[in-house]
Specification:
The complex is a heterodimer. By secondary structure, chain A is mostly beta strands. Chain A is 0% helix and 50% strand. Chain A has no helices and eleven strands. Chain B is mainly beta. Chain B has no helices and eleven strands. Chain B starts with a strand and ends with a strand. The chains are: A mainly beta, B mainly beta.
C-alpha cells in the first residue's frame, strides 16, 4: 500500500530536549516536505527536499533541521524544542512529474512543555 | 495580502444542498491547483486537481479562472460525510505549495 508514515504520532516533551520525527514514503517520490498546522494559520511549509541530499527552507524553518540521506526518509529534527513549536506536523511526498499532488502522512502532534 | 485566500466559513447546509467554495490566489505564475479535504485535524487528503477547462468528479466540480486568479469548488447533493474543511492549494511549478486557510463545511441532517 502506497503511504507516508510518520512517527511518533503523539509526543509530549520538555523544552530543550532534542527530538526527531521520522517520515518515510514507499512511493519512490523525489519530493518530500514538512508542514506545521496551527489554528487560524493553516498549513505552513517548514522544509522541503527535491531529492537526496537536496533540502531547502520553506516559510517557517527557524528552529528545525532536516536531512535527506535516502530517498525514502526525511526526518524532522528539533535540536532544542521550545513551547512555540507545539503544533500538528505533517510530512508529505510527491512525484515531481506532471504536477502531481502531495500525499500526506497521518500527522504528529507535538506538545513542548 | 495573503497568497491564497478562502472564506473560512463555517458553511452550515442541509443534506442535499448545493454549496460552493471560492479561493483566490495572488501569484499569477501559479500553475497547478488542487482541492484537499481535511477531517478534524487528520491529514489533508486530495479531493481533486483543478484543470484549466474545469473538471468534474461525481458530485464535485472544480473551476479555474486564471484571469481573475480564482478557483471554485461546487458540491452537489451534499452528504453528511462531506462535513470537513476544504483546503485550496496552489503551486507555481517550483516546490512552493501554498495552502489556503480552509473553509469549514457542516452538512446537517
Amino acid at each position: 500500500e502506497a503511504q507516508v508514515t510518520q512517527n511518533p504520532r503523539y509526543l509530549i516533551t520538555v523544552t530543550g530536549k532534542k527530538l526527531t520525527v521520522t517520515c518515510s514514503q514507499n512511493m519512490n517520490h523525489e519530493y518530500m516536505s514538512w508542514y506545521r498546522q496551527d489554528p487560524g494559520l493553516g498549513l505552513r511549509q517548514i522544509y522541503y527536499s527535491m531529492n537526496v541530499e537536496v533540502t531547502d527552507k520553506g516559510d517557517v524553518p527557524e528552529g528545525y533541521k532536516v536531512s535527506r540521506k535516502e530517498k525514502r526518509n526525511f526526518p524532522l529534527i528539533l535540536e532544542s524544542p521550545s513551547p512555540n513549536q507545539t503544533s500538528l506536523y505533517f510530512c508529505a511526498s510527491r512525484s515531481v512529474m506532471n504536477n502531481q499532488p502531495q500525499h500526506f502522512g497521518d500527522g504528529t502532534r507535538l506538545s513542548i512543555l | 495580502r495573503k497568497e491564497v485566500e478562502q472564506d473560512p466559513g463555517p458553511f452550515n447546509v442541509p443534506e442535499g444542498a448545493t454549496v460552493a467554495f471560492n479561493c483566490t490566489y495572488s501569484n499569477s505564475a501559479s500553475q497547478s491547483f488542487f482541492w484537499y479535504r481535511q477531517d478534524c485535524r487528520k491529514e489533508p487528503k486530495l479531493l481533486m486537481s483543478v484543470y484549466s477547462s474545469g473538471n468534474e468528479d461525481g458530485r464535485f466540480t472544480a473551476q479555474l479562472n486564471r484571469a481573475s486568479q480564482y478557483i471554485s469548488l461546487l458540491i452537489r447533493d451534499s452528504k453528511l460525510s462531506d462535513s470537513a474543511t476544504y483546503l485550496c492549494v496552489v503551486n507555481d511549478y517550483g516546490q512552493n505549495f501554498v495552502f489556503g486557510p480552509g473553509t469549514r463545511l457542516s452538512v446537517l441532517p
